[in-house]
Amino acid sequence: MAKKAPKYASKAPGRPRKVNQVLLDRMVELRRQGFSHREIAQKVNRSVRTVGRYLRGVSPQLQLPTTPKRVDVLAWCSARILAWVRPHWKLTPKEVDVMLKRLRKVIAAKDPLTVQWLAANEEPRSEFLLYEFLPLALRNMDTDREFERIRIEFGGFDEWIEEDDQQK
Q1: Could you tell me if residue 1 is inside a domain?
Q2: 38 and 89 fall within a common domain
Q3: What is the pLDDT of residue 110?
Q4: What pLDDT, on the 0 to 100 scale, is given for residue 20?
Q5: Which of 24, 31, 83, 118 has the most other CB atoms within 10 Å of its CB?
Q6: What sections of 46-92 are H helices per DSSP?
Q7: Would residue 142 count as lying in a domain?
Q8: Phi-psi region of 68 (alpha: psi -120 to 50; beta: other; left: phi over 0)
Q9: How many beta carbons lie within 10 A of that of residue 59, not counting itself?
Q10: CA–CA distance, 106 with 118 (Å, rounded to integer)
Q11: According to the model, what pLDDT value does residue 8 have?
Q12: Same domain assignment for residues 82 and 153
């Protein structure tokens, strides 16, 4: 007579895996950041041998001391705008949104080599933000605020358009 499979047995053959794709992706990312197998094993709560078996052939990315650290220019500039400009100019959430959209357009219009240069060097990035982007953006913000003040004071321009349509 054939043996019955125990109730607790899974449908898949063999034992369940200790590493799934999400964990493997995390281990590969940690290895590329330069962590050792032992450090990765501690972080993902697996043995050094398991980590070594799954990461065979994945080498760490070496960072030379002279290699500048690259940052996301848009994120860096956005953080400075939120930290410095928003409190000083008392920007509303709508104004911040408009300013960040303008920033995205200005950065997208730059050639890729300039963006890489800004990503690698903090001084030109600061100069770009302080001398190239912010003066124009704040001037536009003043214009937008003045336009909004006039619109509120005169009750909006939609009523004027309706009056013109009725006169024709």
Answers
A1: no
A2: no
A3: 93
A4: 83
A5: 118
A6: 48-54, 73-80, 86-89
A7: yes
A8: beta
A9: 8
A10: 13
A11: 58
A12: yes
Query: Domain check: are 80 and 121 in the same one?
Result: yes
Task: Return the SS3 of 9.
Answer: coil
Q: What angle do CA 96, 133, 146 make, to 5 degrees?
A: 55
Please check whether residue 107 is in contact with residue 74, taking contact to mean a CB–CB distance below 8 angstroms: yes
Give the pTM: 0.52
Question: Is 97 within a domain?
Answer: yes
How far is residue 64's CA from residue 62's CA, in Å, rounded to a whole number?
A: 6
For 49, phi then psi, to 5°, come to -65, -40
Say whether both 111 and 47 belong to one domain. Answer: no
> Quick check: 19 pLDDT over 70?
yes
- What pLDDT is recorded for position 4? 61
Residues of the domain holding 35: 21-54
Asked whether residue 6 is assigned to any structural domain, the reply reads no
Same domain membership, residue 119 and residue 153:
yes
Question: Tens digits of per-residue pLDDT, 29-47?
Answer: 888 877 888 989 998 999 9
**pLDDT digit string, tens, across residues 72-111:** 899 999 999 999 888 888 888 988 999 999 999 999 999 9
With 0-12 CB in 10 A as exposed, 13-18 as middle and 19+ as buried, what is 137?
Answer: buried
The two tokens of residue 51 are 């980590």
The mean pLDDT of 35-61, rounded to a whole number, is 85
36 and 114 both lie in a single domain? no
Considering its fold, how many domains does the chain have in total?
2
